[in-house]
Amino acid sequence: MSCLTMGCGDTDDLVYLHRAFQKTPEIKMLPSQFLLIFLTTVPCLISGDIQFTECPKNSGKSVNLTIPPNGVTGIRSHDWPNSMTGFYGKLLFGTCGFDIKGTSNQTVAAFFTNAHFYYSTPSLDGSVDTNDRNFVHTMNGGEISFEARGAFVDSTMCYWWGFEAIVGAYDNENMCPFESDAVVEVDDSAPRVIASQWYFDDDSATLPQRKCQWTFAPKAGYKLKIAFSVFIINATDESVRLYEDAHPVFNLGSSEELPSRVFYTEKNFPFHSFPGCRQRFSTRCQTRPQCAADVLPFYNKNLSINFESSDKFVTNQYENGNVDIKASYVDLVSLRSKNTVRFINDSADSVLFSSASLKYRFSSVTFTLSKELSSKKLQLYVISTEDSIDIDTVLIMDGDLSHAVSAISNYDLLNNATVTGPITSTTGNITVLLAYASPVRYSAAMFLKVYDDSRDCSDADSVFSAPPHGDTLQTTYTVESQNSKLLVCPITILSLPGSFGDAMNFGINDIQGTDKSVKVLPGTDHNANPFYEVSKSTLNLWGPTSLYGEIFTILLPVETILNFSISKTQIPRDAISIDYYVHKMGIFMTPNYPNGGCSKEGLTSRSLKVIDYGSADNTFKAKFEVFGNLSPSSSLHVLANKKVVLNATSETKLQSSYDTGYASVVSFEYSGPESEKGFFIRYELIPSPKSSHLSISAVLELNMTVSNLIV
What we know:
This protein is mainly β. Among the domains are: about 335-450, Sandwich (Jelly Rolls), CATH 2.60.120.290; about 465-570, Jelly Rolls (Sandwich), CATH 2.60.120.290; about 575-705, Spermadhesin, CUB domain (Jelly Rolls). About 0% of the residues lie in helices and about 40% in strands. It comes from Steinernema hermaphroditum.
């Protein structure tokens, strides 16, 4: 929970909070009313009358506490308010637990006011996260015994992990906790906590009727703030009323929403919601590496900045020590000398952009639609990478450096999804500026495309990316194509460049809603030769297919529901072969089709050897087509057993199709420069007439050498 320091206000204001039951509900339900409230005049560290016991560091055992009759105390994790966990979620100071008992056979209850941790008890394991405001986080019983556990976060970052709770002893479950007949003055060092009841388990709806009332006044010179951490009313015969002096602030029954979670007493204006500022800029600061920047863009000549705590858990990589915030500013107009402009001239054009191409801090590139595309929309997507925790910080602006109408950093867009966006420009320009370069230059990845309603069905939810975590992770999506004007709807699949031999494994699992074919194409040109087409009737012929490249397009007939899976298939540099099952249809391709690679001195070679080991006479044949061209330095050989079916160079005039004839082994062999645009082969494997099925294994051999090419 986040709280703000209060300013001066009227000193004679009183707040009355009244809760009433008229009858007991006759059916069992979730707790009939959840109500947990904080009243405070200072930042949210509960102290004053309530004495807190903190887990001792490195004690190796739990703390034993005995609560006196009707007594109240507080408990906290060790090193409060710092995180009790460090790297990889390990507890920094050993065991942190409590064994709490009451006296005179009283029941003990613990209300967690600020907590985020896992725990173990003698009977069960659980977790507490007070950011979840759908119920009161509490423990009840004759005894309370729990021990905090580590976070088990499988990464180098740390989440804030800790707890603070108010513990009390009581006789009657529905007696009103912390109720007082007298007016309670809320001191600036002693915030108060109240709750509708002690007991909040699932059968608490059976509690007998009860009326509760609390009355508070602020300390002299302060304004009183009341914050409802949890507020839920389910029963129809209950109500909650709040008064300021004699003025009703609200009177709510079941199914009614609280007008605000935070109220202030103020003369001539009973309450208002926070924030009360006329203008407010909010940013979500996510987990950062030790050195990084969060970029806040403003478009004012004069600026005043206030830093306020968030009601979400802070997730810093290093939790211990003081929080250090530094602010600096730069005039964007002064950075125009470091800016380059790239025009996008066709709706089929797209860019997979890396911040690594921005060599200097505050260097930038502006992507601009040409005049011919002035009626179209330019969009940018942020792509998650393996190093998304420690990557460059870039500022993404709608506009150019002279006139940007909005801006956001890539960190503010990153989440658990592999693709976030789109950011759709309203100006026809998108500028990407390097605000902070990570020490090891892990680059940020972005994808820019043109939304053209003459070829695109949706301006969102149409770009997907293979997960960046190698072949250990596969992601499955289901998409539906809907459009009243077009016959086909495109979706874009991205495969970020990785280590050598990094391919995308793409498989279509199901097609519904159409008997027409779905096309899988390289790049974003809808008129390009498709890798393959597949329909309901041919779905069983195509298994997961390894495709090389970075950008792919899937064309779906309208009203089609497509389920597909994508993953990364990595071939290590020191490996020369991989065995895998081959379906009847498949693709063999050069690694950089159709755009070519960056290296001008790299040679690559690969071969695909297909062997039938299960048919009656161990023979089959392959029919195949070649799409693309060879460079003067490349060659392609296709062999059936030892017979040469195709021996192609750049001078060879390729046929429309080839047939290997029946053989026990078919081999595709290629060598050439990495820079060439290359080709792909679409093949079909046909069993021998003596066999009704194929049982085929294949070996893909991959080699790479780097040498000076003589062209």
